[in-house]
Amino acid sequence: xxxxxxxxxxxxxxxxxxxxxxxxxxxxxxxxxxxxxxxxxxxxxxxxxxxxxxxxxxxxxxxxxxxxxxxxxxxxxxxxxxxxxxxxxxxxxxxxxxxxxxxxxxxxxxxxxxxxxxxxxxxxxxxxxxxxxxxxxxxxxxxxxxxxxxxxxxxxxxxxxxxxxxxxxxxxxxxxxxxxxxxxxxxxxxxxxxxxxxxxxxxxxxxxxxxxxxxxxxxxxxxxxxxxxxxxxxxxxxxxxxxxxxxxxxxxxxxxxxxxxxxxxxxxxxxxxxxxxxxxxxxxxxxxxxxxxxxxxxxxxxxxxxxxxxxxxxxxxxxxxxxxxxxxxxxxxxxxxxxxxxxxxxxxxxxxxxxxxxxxxxxxxxxxxxxxxxxxxxxxxxxxxxxxxxxxxxxxxxxxxxxxxxxxxxxxxxxxxxxxxxxxxxxxxxxxxx
Length: 434
Ligand code: UGA
What we know:
By secondary structure, this protein is α/β, with parallel strands linked by helices. It is built from 18 helices and 14 strands. It has helices at 10-21, 33-40, 51-60, 70-74, 97-109, 126-137, 156-161, 173-183, 198-229, 233-241, 262-275, 281-294, 296-305, 331-341, 354-360, 372-376, 396-402, 417-422, and strands at residues 2-6, 25-29, 64-67, 79-82, 114-118, 142-146, 167-169, 194-196, 312-316, 345-349, 367-368, 381-384, 407-410, 426-429.
């Protein structure tokens, strides 16, 4: 099939590349000429394990093309995915201007009947707005469907190639047949594409993220209770996760959830509810607990030292999670700002988010170290914010030798408390001790 993907962010680029890999001819379009120039020169604008290799292979095989021209991208296109950003607007609503502009351009440049697919995370009812725009601009018959994306940054290729499920909201048999054919290589017979009405598909995306965010806030709240009651949240986590009705994933307490999706989607569900006269009370708490959790590390450090003024704090990990350089709504931002606000000096290291962090913290006196032990040198405490693999087994003897004071605050519960204490450190974990 000839496929067009509008938007070359995480979702668009991964979607386009994976469909090309399954044998289709895919043209990825972006209105940003710098991005397209970079892609055409063999570069990949985002850090995502495995993506670069796949892009190069499919470009070489001439199945994957990049352009800024709708005329070029839409020539003979049978399916057009809209995968552009939906930043939150001022009132908390997702801003649909890019989605609707893409729909208008798709309509204007169609050269044959086309299935137009919303892949961006959009509020319930958006597909109807896309259809209304297409009605005004399209020169050929069209179908609109909703196909939300569930990929995780850092595991995006695998999530796309081996999805837990594919959700597609359709309103016609033709769209259903096209989408079933497109996803056939990626789904198994026992887990076929889940077809449903369009509004349900749109809401499924938000419901999944809001549910996962709720699990995390629940565990962060439980961690606070464990600290007060002298229980170990890691044991409680294992104990409840073994119940098949609960399951193990997404039960890790930590420094709060961040990224471009959870915080935004939790807010979007509350906004959607408000518009129809409902108060999604539970999610208000989820958000509040998360805001509090992002301040946990700084409060722990402040309580240990009495005052952070003049102290040097080392921070390991800045990205909102491992295997990405993404710092959107990263808890590390709250941590670093909290430390600076308390008069501390901050020396941080992240394996890949260094450049992003340098821009973000520009002129604010945050020292960005090239490697983890350089960040810890002379520090009064070491704070673990992002659980990169390279931080999981620290050389405790080395740390002991270079730090000014032996204090470890583990925001992800990845270090062995006993080992740390045996090596002479004061160790704090989340929900593991007072
Ligand atoms: C999330 C969803 O997991 C994807 O399914 C979805 O497609 C995506 O949002 C999206 O809407 O586009 P992502 O934001 O890439 O993916 O990252 P996650 O791996 O879900 O992590 C989100 C945050 O939760 C991170 O800050 C992470 O550290 C935190 N987290 C995760 C915890 O604090 N505890 C956990 O147990 C799991």
